[in-house]
Write a structure and sequence with these properties.
Distance between the termini of chain B: 76 Å
Number of domains of chain B: 2
Number of helices of chain B: 5
Structural class of chain A: mainly alpha
Oligomer: heterodimer
Order of helices and strands of chain A: HEHHHHHHEHHHHHH
Strand order of the largest sheet of chain A: 1-2
Helix content of chain B: 25-40%
Radius of gyration of chain A: 21 Å
Strand content of chain B: 25-35%
Strand order of the largest sheet of chain B: 2-1-3-4
Mean pLDDT of chain A: 91
């Protein structure tokens, strides 16, 4: 009981949260600005509204409106990064991101399935969660303030884990242990080689035992090891493993989760060391 | 505690309920078990004289993944008319006209099914399903 009580009352420095929010918004903003196709991509191609758009009868808007939405999203993220009226701009960023990315995903969706590409889920998850966190009222860096509850940090970390845990859970539910028999990865790699001419995958297709090991490591990392992100002692090891995992996905299956997913979520873990480095630098400057 | 548990439920329960709706549980990427014996990839490849162009689709600026996705589905659901009109659409574009100009003389475009013959070493098998002839 004492432990639970401590979990919900223990406070951390709000600076750590401020730095995380700044870095998170900045990484999403830079990613969006570097990928203009999100704005123009949904036009001129097949468009099949995502299920939530269908549910709320949201129809595709014009390219001009989409450009305006993009600008509003960028401005909103920018203001949130600097802590301007955080409650309002968190809500606006979440709504704009949902509309903007939902529209784009309509151009990626098959008419025969409800499934849509998931690499941007985590950004929306974090933005949605921020709306409900008491700490998200902080407007400036203030080393005196300690309004950041431990449970808020743990909750954000647990949300990050959903992406990995959900992925492993669905794999196991759909395919069971067959997913780790080595042949599954072998087939995916060969298919990728035929389709795109990727030669990196050829380093693995010969060795079934290596493929079995990679498959097991993938499932273990997604299902269990990712929860190592919750603990201070293991978070950076797990973050390193996850980076390696995403790099392998990029090199073999040619799916880039690093810019769209991994960098924004890693700001949650990088905020503390970055803040420490800034403070050290500032104290050295003031001493000299 | 209420906020913590509520948000946790919002994000974790849809995983177990498998609600397929962005942004909640679209985790189905490479989730099904597979086997090299079941790898069948459909593609278009060009042939003029002794020259074979296995990257024909990319050379006419067409995404091979999209082509395979559509052809695979149409072939196995026996939608041969749809498949035919899809391939004809690919071979009518501006990019293909440019390709024809760059490759004067007889040109065959083969609709092929690529499968795996052996994995050690990797050996692929190409079966021509249909041939389209140009510049006769």
């Amino acid at each position: 009981m004492n432990l639970i009580n401590r979990f919900f009352t223990h406070k951390l420095s709000t600076d750590q949260f401020f730095v995380f929010r700044f870095l998170f918004c900045a990484s999403v903003l830079i990613y969006l600005l570097m990928n203009w196709f999100y704005v123009t991509g949904p036009y001129g191609a097949n468009y099949n509204p995502i299920p939530l758009f269908e549910l709320f009868s949201i129809e595709q808007w014009s390219l001009g409106v989409n450009k305006l939405l993009f600008v509003l999203l960028c401005v909103s993220l920018c203001l949130l990064a600097f802590g301007r009226v955080p409650r309002i701009f968190t809500a606006l960023s979440a709504i704009f991101f949902f509309l903007f990315m939902g529209n784009y995903l309509g151009s990626m969706k098959s008419p025969n399935s409800n499934y849509v590409w998931h690499s941007h889920n985590m950004i929306l998850y974090i933005l949605l969660a921020l709306n409900f966190l008491p700490v998200n009222k902080v407007k400036t860096l203030s080393s005196q303030s300690k309004e950041y509850f431990l449970w808020e940090l743990v909750l954000l970390k647990l949300i990050v884990c959903t992406g990995y845990f959900g992925s492993a859970f669905i794999k196991l539910k759909t395919s069971g242990l067959d997913w780790m028999d080595g042949y599954t990865l072998q087939a995916y790699f060969i298919q990728k080689h035929i389709l795109t001419g990727n030669t990196f995958v050829l380093n693995f297709v010969d060795s079934l035992s290596l493929l079995v090991a990679i498959s097991w490591l993938t499932i273990m990392l997604e299902l269990i090891l990712c929860f190592g992100l919750l603990f201070k002692k293991t978070e950076f090891y797990v973050l390193g493993l996850l980076f390696g995992f995403h790099l392998m996905i990029l090199l073999t299956l040619e799916i880039n989760f690093i810019n769209s997913h991994f960098i924004p979520i890693s700001t949650l873990f990088m905020a503390r060391p970055i803040l420490g480095a800034i403070k050290r630098r500032l104290s050295q400057t003031s001493l000299s | 505690m209420l906020v913590f548990l509520s948000l946790l439920s919002v994000f974790y329960i849809p995983i177990f309920l498998e609600i397929e709706s962005w942004p909640f549980t679209d985790w189905r990427v490479f989730n099904y078990s597979y086997h090299p014996e079941r790898v069948y990839v459909f593609s278009l490849e060009a042939e003029s004289g002794d020259n074979k162009d296995e990257k024909f689709l990319r050379n006419i600026n067409f995404d091979p993944v999209t082509f395979n996705r559509f052809s695979y589905k149409a072939y196995y659901t026996k939608n041969y008319d749809d498949l035919e009109s899809y391939i004809e659409g690919v071979l009518k574009g501006e990019e293909f006209d440019k390709y024809l100009e760059e490759h004067p003389g007889k040109l065959d475009v083969n609709f092929v099914m690529i499968s795996v013959e052996s994995t050690r070493p990797l050996k692929l098998k190409r079966s021509i399903i249909k041939q389209y002839e140009f510049n006769q």
